[in-house]
Specification:
Length: 296
């Protein structure tokens, strides 16, 4: 981070004899880790493709770049470091290669003009605040490889209307979508068991949410100030809902919304009732048979 925030730096030149670093098109790279270290803050180009062979983008590498608008990340890149693009105020589009597995803490935080984000198909983890305060993003589709959304990962994405979550998602950490006041609906996929505190706090345009039958806990303030929430589509039934723990503190909007149970949920309930009836009848029949076999 020796040259981080050098606001007039346009190019980095490294001696060919340097055993540890090299430069390519004015961008600094580290030989040992095959990583991109620094993209000069005032480099005049507005388009950049991370070269094939680079495996990581280090922390703060593109931080506060003033001209960069579009970034193409090659398939060889596996890891996007924390704060990697923090505050790149003119960044409009980023296209991830199919090698990226992790986007680290605050990697794209405060990229306020970012609108076009395309993820690769191997992304597993989006860490805390990775896209927080990206106030121009309108919609997102997460690949089905994503398993974890970190705390406040998309917080205060105030233009976000729609997000399609991964079908293999397991964890949504606290505050993940807090302050997304344009978000209108969201479907939580099967496999998620908990909505942590403040996850949807301040989502004032949220009108409907879908909850899976695997959901067992909704923590305090998860839906605080969701004044327009009117419908909850629950994949379970009235019986399975008894096992769903909802903390009442600042979740009044969720509790008073109209809950709809899925057709599958009703089938499960009916099936359980039928099973209970069959078991009771068989037990009663066996009892009668024993009584008949006893001598008078």
């Amino acid at each position: 981070q020796a040259f981080y925030h050098c606001q007039y730096l346009t190019s980095v030149v490294v001696s060919k004899e340097n055993e540890h670093y090299y430069s390519l098109d004015g961008v600094l790279f580290e030989r040992a880790t095959h990583s991109l270290v620094l993209y000069p803050m005032s480099k005049p180009a507005n388009f950049y493709t991370v070269p094939e062979g680079v495996t990581a983008i280090q922390s703060h590498a593109f931080g506060d770049c003033i001209n960069l608008q579009t970034v193409i990340i090659s398939d060889s890149v596996v890891d996007i470091g924390q704060n990697a693009f923090y505050g790149a105020e003119k960044l409009l589009a980023v296209h991830f290669g199919n090698g990226v597995t992790a986007i680290r803490h605050s990697a794209f935080r405060e990229c306020t003009e970012l609108t076009d984000v395309t993820f690769g198909n191997k992304l597993v983890t989006i860490e805390g605040q990775a896209f927080s305060e990206c106030s121009s993003i309108n919609e997102l589709t997460l690949p089905n490889s994503v398993e974890t959304i970190g705390y406040c990962a998309f917080a205060v994405c105030s233009s976000l209307v729609r997000i399609e979550l991964s079908s293999n998602l397991k964890t949504i950490e606290h505050g993940a979508f807090a302050g997304c006041n344009s978000l209108q609906s969201i479907d939580i996929p099967f496999g998620v068991t908990k909505i942590e505190n403040g996850t949807f706090e301040g989502c004032t345009s949220l009108r409907s949410i879908s909850l899976p039958i695997t959901m067992f806990s909704i923590e305090n303030s998860a839906f605080e100030d969701c004044d327009n929430l009117v419908r909850v589509r629950y994949d379970g039934n009235m019986l399975t809902k008894l096992f769903l723990s909802i903390n009442e503190y600042d979740n009044e909007d969720l509790i008073r919304a109209r809950w709809q149970y899925s057709f599958l949920g009703w089938l499960i309930l009916i099936g359980l009732i039928v099973i209970v009836v069959v078991i009771v009848r068989r037990a009663t029949k066996k009892k009668l048979q024993k009584q008949q076999l006893q001598p008078p």
